[in-house]
Amino acid sequence: MLTRAITVNQTLHGYDEGHRLLATSLKLSTAAERLLLEMSDLSGDGIVNGFEEYLTGYPLPEDDHNRFALAKTWYAREMERPGCVWTHTLIVEIEELTRLHQPKELLSNFVRPHKGQAFTSYETKLNVHAEDALIPTAHVEPRLTGQRTEELVGNLFYSIYQNKKSAVLLTGNAIAFETLILQMWWQQWPALRGTFSFCTGALSPRMLPSGKLFAAQVAPEQNYYLFAKHRDSKARNSADLIDGSKPSPSQLKPWYEVALSNLRSGQYPNYVKFLREFGPTLSPSRTSFSRLTQLFWLMSRSLNETKSLGELTSVLKQRFPKSTDAGELKLALYGDGRAWCFLSDKSNPTLEDALLSELIETKHADMFDVPKLELAERVCRLWERNHDLALSLMTKCFETGLLELNPIRQEFLSASISSASSEEIIALTQTRTNLLETAIALNPGIAESPSLWQLDENRQRYLFGRLQSLETAFDPEALSISVQWERVAIAMLDAGSDLFAQSLSHVLGDRLPELILTWHAKSGTVRNPVLGSNWLEVLGGYPQQVMTWLKTHRSHENNTTPIPTCALIATVLDPNSYEVRASGTEVWLDLAHSCAETIAIKDRNPVLSFLLAVGLSHEDATASKLVVCAFEPIYDAASLDALPWRSWSQLEHLAPSYGLIWSWDKCHRLEEALITKVAKCNWPAEILLKAGRSSQVIRQIIQRAKDSTKGRRLLAELRERVRHNSIPLDPTTRALLGV
Q: Which residues span the domain enclosing 88?
């Protein structure tokens, strides 16, 4: 067995007209000297039988280069003054603790001095020889056996690791528990050892300079009262007192059994190797010890129970939620798998299959640094090794909603492109675009799926470009490839995507507006379809086709039109265009009658302004009905300056201004337009009242009518008909007319 030496410094403290430093092999900081002086003195007010010698371990202050002090204290009976002690302290660089594998390598260097001797041997550095191999933690061999020992160790673990408190073991003999405390200390990885504090002979509570209690203390039973004040369970810096003669069963979590078995009887020797391998990747704390122990326990269970692997992942997420937390440990568990070498053969394909399955199934993908998992090569090997499982996992990926497709599943799908057959990809790629180049080349029909047109713009542009290239780069007949553009357009409409409306217009020509309107009419029966601005622009560019569709699709049974689609048409066409004027007024009557019930208030003004413009542009009786329906809401919107610009632009030339002074007043111009239209077309005079509806608007119309000959003629006609009871009016309106 190869050996190598490490350098260890030493100090000696004892009595020389007071407790003081007698010899040292190094220069320490003032803080370290003060701490060593305090810790090397007797740990209480007086010696107690059974505690004549003890060990103390504690970290030195940070400015002393991460050093750890391990001290042996002996009661100096040969001194005349009572309470004197000798303390030999070994000071080890925490880095050097990684080279030591058994505490005996240090303990054998303790030498008790004697009164009157020279102390020069304590002024030189020591060369401690360490075996160049990892020796598993030896089992505990205190002077205790059986159930009592197991309960005692369980109590210590409960206090130190689970409760994160100071464990005070009350006993009558310090030596009996020295090996136990040392083995608990040595079970830890070196960096954690460097922060762990203990004393096997604490005659009174021992604390670090920060005021924190030592993690483990062995104390005399008779000094119980000195430690009792630290039993406050709610305080962070509190202690659990353990009766060494009558330990009670603890509430220890099940995963600590791994550490206990290793400590008691040397079971799970690879557990210690696991701690020393991955402990340095975490913070040197008792919390990290507990977490690694729990993970090792779950790993051992996962080899026999698949569900435990999911529990392992959940615990890992709970303990280390961010992708930057414990990255090396996560990679060792789910990436290169070297953590499993401490339990199983990493080359075991069953284990690798289970790990890949868990990565696909887990909801905690965000805790991984995905690129470091090196999934590409692993996925390719999976397709070769277990094709059915690879296909099943790929299916799971595609069944995931777009918002839930996490980076691990994306990586899995990308790597599967070159391994899965084209038929499998066609069947599974309808919700992903990183496989679309292959999928579309094999089956352009995938583009008929609305979900593809719900992706981001860049992916949609890629898909559409790929569809176009199929018909230009290949011979469709030779490849049996044909893009069904009408179906693609419907898929885009269903998806609410209008990016390629103009491009489809070039492909489908005047078939596109008919397709859009038919889709809208059918969709309107089950939901409220919404068209993007590009679709609306396409419809506006085909007024003849749009009006032809409208006239064709009026129901032959009741001569009605699909109202939502009719309203849509009213918002995209110009009411003053030739196509609209030539189509007459009858086609808009259904919309006029149903507008108030079927069109949302916020959407009515564009529709009603269109209907008013159509009514003012025609002279038939139906036109008067459109005017009656639309005038008052548009008039109110104009009075509130809430009429959209496009709506007024459609009405402006139909409501001309007869002088610059009134050109700004839309209401004035609308009043004039209504009066002029009724007079010119010989519509019944009561149209003025029906169009006004409210008394306020009627008052304004009557006032405006008084300003012109044609208006006064209409008012006279109205009064005459009212006198003959031809028109039933409420008292307010009669008063406005002066009847």
A: 3-131
